[in-house]
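TL;DR need structure tokens for one chain.
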Amino acid sequence: MTMRATPLPAQFFGLVLVFASVGVASCSSPPASDLSADAIAKATAGECLDCDLPGVDLAGKNLQEAKLNRSNLSNAKLAGGDLSGALMDSVDLQNADLANANLTNAALTSANLGGANFKGADLSGAYLRDANLADTDFTDANLTGANLTSTNLADAILDGATLTDAMLPEGFTAP
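>> reply
TL;DR here they are.
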């Protein structure tokens, strides 16, 4: 069998050179079983946008004012951590453990927090507009002054939660 090379247009070689010279900064990780040390370092240093860190253990860590927008932190362990003032818009924290975490003034707009554990957490002044809070546990959490407008609170647990001055979804009645 004879193989013949087909000539390629000159434009093709230009594209190859362009793609070869573009560097892409990413903090995505390999499979969940082998999380990228680089991504974890970036998250704990305060900026890891679009990171893929499912199941990461950052319990008790200082992530004050961290920028974690659009990151996947599903099933993450963040219990007792300080995420005050953190920017976590469109973050995936589904089934994450944030018990006793400090999230005062954190921005979680359009975040997926379904099934997350916020028992005893401080979310005072947090901005959760358009977030999915279905099946989320807010037992004994402080939501004073939090913005929960347009959120999905279906089956959320709010036993003992403080909702003073919180902005709730239209038609939602606090327990």
